[in-house]
Amino acid sequence: MQPIMTAAEINRFLETDFPQIHTDGRVFTVTAVEPGAVTMTFDPSERHLRPGGTVSGPAMFALADVCAYAAVLAHIGPVALAVTTSLNINFLRLPKPQPIICRCRILKLGKRLAVIDALLSQDGGPEPIAQATATYSIPPRG
Amino acid sequence: MQPIMTAAEINRFLETDFPQIHTDGRVFTVTAVEPGAVTMTFDPSERHLRPGGTVSGPAMFALADVCAYAAVLAHIGPVALAVTTSLNINFLRLPKPQPIICRCRILKLGKRLAVIDALLSQDGGPEPIAQATATYSIPPRG
Amino acid sequence: MQPIMTAAEINRFLETDFPQIHTDGRVFTVTAVEPGAVTMTFDPSERHLRPGGTVSGPAMFALADVCAYAAVLAHIGPVALAVTTSLNINFLRLPKPQPIICRCRILKLGKRLAVIDALLSQDGGPEPIAQATATYSIPPRG
Amino acid sequence: MQPIMTAAEINRFLETDFPQIHTDGRVFTVTAVEPGAVTMTFDPSERHLRPGGTVSGPAMFALADVCAYAAVLAHIGPVALAVTTSLNINFLRLPKPQPIICRCRILKLGKRLAVIDALLSQDGGPEPIAQATATYSIPPRG
To answer: Closest chain D residue to B108 measured between Cα atoms?
Structure first.
């Protein structure tokens, strides 16, 4: 499974075509693209934090979702428009109010469905703070 | 399973203790509390919309999460602090850029775990736009 | 959403085309078909029981899966061959070693994907013993 | 996270305390135990096969469930009795009627909840046939 877009190309595409995910400044940045995998950093702003100094659940959901989308994009290109059909997320540990790294691995890239595993961690620590599995519907390609 | 808080009490509690979910104005409002169930309305603001005129996935995730939390709260009171441990969401139909109604039914309210079913719909239409199942960890009660 | 097969027709189809689910005698029986919903009874045999007198997890998984499949079948007919793509199950209460009733409601019946909610209960008791959400891939129809 | 049971000890425990999973002969065998992970082989018998020469969904569910249970057991010992509270499984590719290898990694081993990732493959092939995430409730330890 070979990627056909670079990290820079995906970041540019997200900025142009999904400006809404950057309403509060650029918080999501693809940092690496490998065969079958994409890594993204999320730099939480005030609005993503919660009292007690943690990152909100919806912010972690958004990170897993955008990163999984970027992983599909990286391998099928910006033409097709994949749509999230389901996402299952497990919150494992309370994150600190710091950047979160998400690594997405493509488990399946079929003609109609893609299934992606997302693992969220911080500080390069070995213990994940959340794990998600996302399914995307891929539109028919001409 | 009898609720011990009213809709007004839950709304007040969310406003006081979770101001961050109302950063963009009050978008989440509990409208009904029944035995084992809570109904919430989500009135999306600009930031929750997406090009093409739909509501974002993270916004629907947040709605299911807050409403499920409110359902637990309604039945165990504001003392305990339940934490989302997992959430599985299925996106069924593209929502219109309009208010979304979420109805949460408690499937189980145990000593340690609560499991809640959430059904999101619009316009009183019979066809749901999303379905979620959420699990909350309930801290030991004194 | 109108069903196009009766309970008797679905039972006959399962017997003819899926004899393997009846290896230990007929344990799964569709008892009702309604618009958008199917009800099935599972009568556990020795092999489905567990020490302590409960029903095994895989048996409950199989019940939710077969019943959801029957719900799709009831509405698109026996021609198409739907395949389970994902199933999320929550075990809520330990079942007694007695028949289990599963009610499946179709949340979405699209051209390519069907999403079904399954609720398992016993004794007509109001409290579910398990809840599942299943996704089926529907092959292109001619 | 250090295991406190060997593969042989877990196999013996499963045989003694869960004879029902071996009704058709010994089909589940732990082959490796590492810090935070357990690998299990499943050798399907006639009853686990389906027409067209594939392995049934419930059989793959059972494999993921037993292997995840073995992973918890390996790290907390045979005293505590963990119970599956939820399992989310994605079926990625049709398996061949051959042995399936399941590798379970513990994502979290808390005092009350364990979350385990399970990846099923065949032939040492790089492409998984199924992925599951399971949650276990761990009883209070004295």
So the answer is: D85
Whether A86 contacts chain C with CB within 8 A: yes
Cβ contact, residue pair C23, D61, below 8 Å: no
Cα of A32 to nearest chain C Cα, Å: 29
Contact B43, B27 (CB under 8 A): yes
Strand partners, B135: B86, B115
Degrees (nearest 5) of the Cα angle A30, A120, A139? 60
Give pLDDT tens digits along chain A (142 positions): 899 999 999 999 998 877 777 776 789 999 999 999 999 999 998 888 877 788 999 999 999 999 999 999 999 998 667 899 999 999 999 999 999 999 999 999 999 999 999 999 998 677 999 999 999 999 876 5
Assign B4 to helix, strand or coil. Answer: coil
Please choose, from the candidates C41, C19, C15, C14, the residue with its C-alpha nearest in 3D space to the C-alpha of residue C29.
Answer: C41
Contacting residues for D126 by C-beta, under 8 A, at least 6 apart: none
Q: Which residues of A touch B23 (CB under 8 A)?
A: 47
* Min Cα separation A76/chain C (Å): 20
Give the residue extent of every domain in chain D.
7-137
Give first-to-last CA distance, chain D, whole Å. Answer: 20
Q: Is C5 helix (H, G, I), strand (E, B) or coil?
A: coil
The CATH superfamily label for domain B7-137 reads Hotdog Thioesterase (3.10.129.10)
